[in-house]
Amino acid sequence: MEVFKFIALSGSLVSAASPNNHSYSNILSIPQAEWVALNNTVGGRLQGVRPFEIACFSRFENRPLTPSPFNCNAVQAGYASPTFRSPHFNAYMMPHWETCQTSHQGCLLDDTNPKNPAAFNISNDCSQGSISPFYIDVRTERDVQSAFAFSARTGVPLSIKNSGHDYKGRSSSRGSLSLWTFNMKSMSYNKQFVPQGCNVSYNAVTVGAGASWQDVYAFADAHNLTIVGGYHQTVGASGGWLMGGGHSILSPALGLGVDRVVEIKIVTPDGQSRVANDCHNSDLFWALRGGGGGTFGVVLDLESTHKVEPQLSLQVASLSFNGTSTNLRQFYGLAINNSVKWGSEGWGGHIQGTALIYVTPNLSLDEARESMKPMSNFILSQNGTIVLETLTWYPFFLKYVVAAEAAVGSLTILGSRLVPKANFDTDSGKLQLLDFMMSLVPQSLPYVPVVPPVNFNFTEGSTSVTPAWRSALWHFGFHTSWEFNSSISDIQTQYAMVHNVTKTLRELTPGSGSYFNEGDVYELDHENTFWGPNYSQLLKIKRKYDPQSLLDCWQCVGWKGSDDARYCTRQVLRIVRGHRGSKPIPKWPFVLGHRDGAT
Ligand SMILES: Cc1cc2nc3c(=O)[nH]c(=O)nc-3n(C[C@H](O)[C@H](O)[C@H](O)COP(=O)(O)OP(=O)(O)OC[C@H]3O[C@@H](n4cnc5c(N)ncnc54)[C@H](O)[C@@H]3O)c2cc1C
């Protein structure tokens, strides 16, 4: 059995683990009899695993290794492809979460040219980094129950991975036993789905823990349905996306993922398999509707059931132009000035650099043309491109999302903030926002998912996401990245930049919050920022269902803190802040100003 061969080989990892890496040396010192017993209870689906890129390297954990050119070629060819990465347990969409960033331990290739030999030359050691050395390919609730019992008995920490999209690396964890839910792909449709114990029915689709959004969109389209989901083909439909909130460009009209889920099946860390809905375990259901993945339990096969709509006709506006320092200001100014009106018409979408792509199910094509006129006139004046057309969701997704596939494999980090409608209500508020956007331009063109559920009639108190979602018009993002061979100091600078831009956004939007799944890795006051007044209740529910704190993830509900060795990936900014060094955080060159006049 592969896993036992791996345990024998892992002796070198134990000796390589530093004394501080308590949790890492812990997992590798577990007696073989424990692993045998675990493997027997999970149907032989316990696996030992090494890093995704190992085939390219000639050293692993400071020992010589024979590279495998054939396997290395395959990894190099698929390095930037989400569909290549997602079926590999040991691959993450942002590969820095495969490594220990504080010590440069990992096996990164050059994402701009994966064949660049400088990344894997003879002097470069590949190491296990943050890849769990063992995982269970989860298929049944018994697998999860066995893992919880194993963790309680041995002290080995657990982690949960689905697609590996998480922007904060919460699905990788050094020295953990990982539960990989990716292969649970079931999907079913029920016109009259009745949540267990309830007496209402919904037109609903039920999806397995590992189903990706592209799978689900194809399934919904084949049944002539529209379902609200993420803007990327390999993001999972039932995992972190859903439990963190789940935005879609249809959310302004149809709500967040958490607004549309009607039932979740989950195994909680106390070993119980539970159905959570409005009538059954309703406290847990509320917590799962925004409290975040990875902390309340493991969502399982036939797991989350989502309300669907009959097939909707969507008006699509896709506009782009060549940007300059002067016309960019006009473009962003127009987007800001029209946002309240567009929000009331159900438009949602993305403003990305010099392009805008919006959809709405609430207008006819003529109304959509009229609504977009101020922006279309501007784009025409810049000799840009305008497409206004009517599509249903899946053809839209294939044409505009898959065709312009967001590249993965880069070392990218993100910060974000929900921008309230109040910022768009006054000239000074709009001007501040515009100045802020322009201040970003030299570093990175602004990225604004226009996804808050402004037009959706939600039920007060039904979800645990921050209430800031309900009063926001924009979810403003900022990202940056570094190179495979960047120094720790360069990486610190990038984290500090995102941290400081987010801080400026916070000052611009007092009292608002951020999206748990896409916030700054080093978000200050994260409980309040991600959940606001809901946090204390979420914590009570976490303690009720996970009394031994078997699940822990970065800035999740009940997080134990950053000192644990499993977070070796994320202690970089702590060094910047002076906990372990003295490097000052660079200031973002933006000062909040007040100017009069229209934007
Ligand atoms: C390219 C890209 C595009 C994105 N687009 C969108 C978008 O359009 N809308 C949006 O809202 N977000 C988007 N995101 C963010 C996305 O929602 C988060 O990254 C989310 O955490 C992904 O969840 P996952 O389960 O697919 O990923 P993973 O990284 O596998 O898991 C994320 C978290 O969920 C937990 N988890 C996963 N499965 C389970 C389970 N079965 N039970 C319990 N916990 C589980 C993990 O432990 C981890 O904490 C995008 C991210 C990327 C990288």
Automatic annotation (TrEMBL):
This is FAD-binding domain-containing protein. Keywords: Oxidoreductase. InterPro entries: BBE, FAD-bd_PCMH, FAD-bd_PCMH-like_sf, FAD-bd_PCMH_sub2, FAD-linked_Oxidoreductases_BP, Oxid_FAD_bind_N. Belongs to the oxygen-dependent FAD-linked oxidoreductase family. Residues 128-309 form the FAD-binding PCMH-type domain. Coiled coil: none annotated. One of its GO terms (molecular function) is FAD binding. The keyword Oxidoreductase applies. Pfam families: BBE (PF08031), FAD_binding_4 (PF01565).
